[in-house]
Amino acid sequence: MVAKQSNTQKRSLKSQAFFELGIFFAGIILINMIAGFLFFRVDFTKEQRFTLSNASKKLVGNLQDVVYVKVYLDGDFPAGFKRLSNATKETLDDLRAYAGGNLEYEFINPTADPDLKVRDEILQQLLKKGLTPINVQVSDENGSRQQIVVPGAIVSYRGKEIAIPLLQSNTVASSADEVLNNSVMNLEFQLVSAIKKASSLQRPKIAFIYGHGELDTIQTADVIKSLRASYQVDFLYLPATAPKDLLDYKTLIIAKPQRAFNEGEKFNIDQYIMEGGRVLWLIENLMADMDSLGPDASLMTSTFNLNLEDQLFTYGARINNDLIQDVQCAPIPVVTGNVGSQTQSDLMPWLFYPIFIPNSLHPVVKNLDGVRSEFANTIDSIQVAGVTKTALLQSSKYTKVLNAPVRVSLNMLSIEPNPLQFNKSSMMAAIALEGKFNSLYRNRLLSQNDSAQYLTQSKATRMIVVSDGDIIKNYVSKKDSAAYPLGYDRFTKQTFANKNFILNAVDYLADDDNIIEARTKEVKLRTLDKGKIKKQKLNWQIFNILLPNLLIVIMGIVLFYSRKRKYTR
User: Fold this and answer.
1) Least confident of 224-228, 288-292, 322-326
2) Rounded CA separation 210/91 (Å)
3) Domain total of the chain
4) Which of 139, 250, 402, 487 could form a disulfide with 204 if both were Cys (CB 3.0 to 4.6 A apart)?
């Protein structure tokens, strides 16, 4: 009787166990079925690194066809590039999750072919498309070796291709880790921006204003070429442009004018802004140029008298009649003597060429390299109700401001900067203004030639004011009139971030989708102590590999004897 009761209990326990197991599997199946209809993710990282911006989600969610991305970061890389490769894959996975099946990607090793000739042809093709192979030093247990890496991707959409350099060059970064970290932070923006360029059916229209001695198309050739990848770039002769024609353009660029704007032209620009138009002002008040140095290697600055002071003041900015001298500056070559018949020259710091290293979190300049300037003025922020102001470019802690008139002489190169005089800090040279602006003509009686119907307050809009027109100016070779890349310093062979600054500024002004907001993402650089890694390598290998397996074995043994004891009573 006892044995029969015991068997009944055993069968009851087994039935209960099978029932609980069935409930468990049914729950898993139900959860998976629900997950098939509902999509959600939880980002537990402190910086929300796996959370896409709303603009990115909206863009990929509205794709009408498949975007195909080829990433050339497959292979045996150093740890830093493996991190960039993994981060690229993670970002693409996030984008694909919101693309509704309209995003596919592939990782390719461009140096996998053993045939050197085929490999070189592949690299040349990628170079023509805009992806530059780089040589990296790889160190391992067997020593060091050179390896070619192509840190880039190609986005394809309906036959249109956009090349993306995934590695963000950094002329001022203190380490390669910082360069790679900045690259990881910019991945979403780089990828989404390229997808938008490739998938856009119609490019937004922007225009360079001329008619007042602005920089010509040769002096701005490099940035114009880059802008044309995303925008339709036109050139408007302002004196002959009807006010309504300005409204066709998302952004106006005014690049270093040298002659005054008349009231009619100012009124047209003002009403364009009131209608929600955006303007990139690249204005400087003092006439100073190295080509203008006289026989005694000096010049006296003079003002341009652009007649724009009152207009910019109304919007919230004032460009001062002064020049910034900064210890943090670019050098120029100076003749120091002769060796035989050859002239010898050395590079010496030129305080009138400040290098602005942005530290703002604004999307235009966040994680941006140093921006090189020439004879920049300071900018004051004016309190205007309803207008938000953000400093974009500022000088270093060791700055001196010279009020006009200023005598500029090469003899200044021999004078050591006095720390007591270079005591200004963070003098502003570029500012972003956003909000609803008052019209310059709000409380004015207009002439009969002006329209009786005009707006006195703008729609919500934005503008950027830069106190150095040379920031957008590329060097032009005197030998063959060839345009150098914008930001390239032919003396130091460095490329500063001037072009990225201008491109970001135009994107910020012209892009209603706010894709540039993706540049605000921040990923903290948490570096490991390499000494500790080497010293504790074996301990952590044991902890990560052997210990989990040992725990599984112990749990298996405990479970086995527990069940054996339970069912053998």
Assistant:
1) 288-292
2) 42
3) 3
4) 250
Band of the pLDDT at 391, cuts 50, 70, 90? Answer: very high
Q: Are 60 and 103 in contact (CB under 8 A)?
A: yes
Residues 179 and 215 in one domain: no
Pairing mode, if any, of strands 317-319 and 379-381? antiparallel
Give the distance between the most distant pair of CA atoms in the chain: 123
- Let me know if residue 44 belongs to a domain: no
Question: Averaged over 428-452, what is the pLDDT?
Answer: 81
- Looking at this protein, which amino acid is placed at residue 60? V
Per-residue pLDDT band at 313 (split at 50, 70, 90): very high
SS3 538: helix
Nearest Cα neighbor of 409 from 254, 519, 299 is: 299
Query: Is there a contact between 284 and 376 (Cβ–Cβ < 8 Å)?
Result: yes
Average pLDDT over residues 537-562: 78
Q: How large a percentage of the chain has pLDDT more than 70?
A: 82
Q: If residue 465 lies in a helix (H) or strand (E), which one and from where to where?
A: strand 461-466
Give the closest residue to 430 by CA, choosing from 474, 394, 388. Answer: 394
Q: Residue 282 belongs to what domain range? A: 205-510
Q: How many CB atoms lie within 10 A of CB 336?
A: 10
Tell me which residue of 314, 354, 252, 350 sits closest to 456, measured CA to CA.
Answer: 314
Domain annotation covers residue 42 = no
The β-bridge relationship of strands 160-165 and 152-157 is: antiparallel
Please answer whether residues 519 and 365 qualify as being in contact, where contact means their C-beta atoms are separated by less than 8 angstroms: no
Pair 190, 166: CB distance under 8 Å: yes
Taking the alpha carbons at both ends of the chain, their separation in whole angstroms is 15
Contacts within 8 Å (CB) and 24+ apart, 541-547: none
**Residue 173 in this model has a pLDDT that exceeds 60:** no
Rounded Cα distance, 107 and 478, in Å: 43
Same domain, 257 and 398: yes
Check whether residue 557 and residue 485 sit in a common domain. Answer: no
**Residues 6 or more apart from 98 whose CB is under 8 A from it?**
52, 56, 57, 60, 61
Measured CA angle at 526 (ends 500, 139), to 5 deg? 85
Is 167 inside a domain boundary?
A: yes
Helices 176-185 and 187-199 cross at an angle (nearest 10°) of 50
pLDDT surpasses 60 at 523: no
Establish if 148 belongs to a structural domain.
yes
Say if CB 148 and CB 111 are below 8 A apart: yes
| Shared domain check, 285 and 353 | yes
Q: Which of 12-16, 36-40, 242-246, 273-277 has the highest mean pLDDT?
A: 273-277
Contact 249, 205 (CB under 8 A): yes
The answer to whether residue 401 scores a pLDDT higher than 70 is yes
CA distance 49 to 43: 8
Please, are residues 269 and 243 in contact by the beta-carbon 8 Å criterion? no
- Does 190 lie in the same domain as 155? yes
Residue 320 has pLDDT above 50, yes or no: yes
Q: What is the pTM of this model?
A: 0.78
Asked if 333 and 435 sit in the same domain, the reply is: yes
254/319 same-domain check: yes
Helix (H) or strand (E) holding 337: strand 329-339
